[in-house]
Amino acid sequence: MRATPAPGTTASVRPTVTPRPAVSPRRAAPDLPDPGPGPTPTGRSQRLAGVATMIGSGLSTQTGAAIGSLAFPVLGPVGVVAVRQYVAAVALLAVGRPRLRTFTWWQWRPVLLLALVFGTMNLSLYSAIDRIGLGLAVTLEFLGPLAIALCAARRRVDICAAVVAAAGVVTLMRPQPSTDYAGMALGLLAAACWASYILLNRTVGQRVPGAQGSAAASGLSALMFLPVGVVLVLQHPPTAEAVGYAVAAGVLSSAVPYLADMFTLRRVPAQAFGLFMSVNPVLAAVVGWIGLGQNLGWTEWASIGAIVAANSLSIVTRRT
Questions:
Q1: First and final CA of the chain: distance in angstroms?
Q2: pTM, entire model
Q3: What is the mean pLDDT of residues 135-143?
């Protein structure tokens, strides 16, 4: 969850493209070049700063999602996502400053699709969090970018990684009396949306300069959720505490990761960034456990570990 966030991207398992993709609130940050071999003392300090920022960014994203879930009893997942979309739009529009009047229909088409996917991705993710918990929801969503990376690969090690990831998914979704299949389906929908989000971000980055396309898509997505906010205020006036939780989710899961990733990718290689991103499902499970009391069994932890290991194996063995 990064969403918006943006929901990106995206360096972890998102394919490197040319030209540079647009920066988006879902961590679709450009793959910047490695600062160089043999780091100097200054280079080492920069990379240490980058690693610290990556840790902070991951914790911010998952903590934001956990805080946002505290507003579910009052706002519901839809209301929390609406507020998050508003916050993401403000942040992205301030940075991207899109010149909407100059957009052609050829540019608008992927932007409109990106806006639709962005909103659907966050809504399905937060709805999944409401039903199956933060750790499992984020793990299932992570299958989206993982699938894109593995489908684009042709190596035996990637086939092995795909088998490991599939085993993790099967274990997660094994039939049990307590299995919430609707929640699992929402998590998989979030994964499909994230995969679509990555591909659309590439197209937007090719057709629209800078971050203008991502900013425009974020603004349109916020407009789509505007009626939701109006209905909530009129029918069920939210408490200040619930709105504060939702705003915090938007800041921590969209604005902070967006700025942190821009900082990080200038200081660490894209491969290292991608490797760390694969740990986000573990961070989500830990935050859910400590912050929300969402305990997982050993089979769930094993499944999360298998999916993380699959992505890590694919990245570590990738030639750069």
A1: 26
A2: 0.76
A3: 87
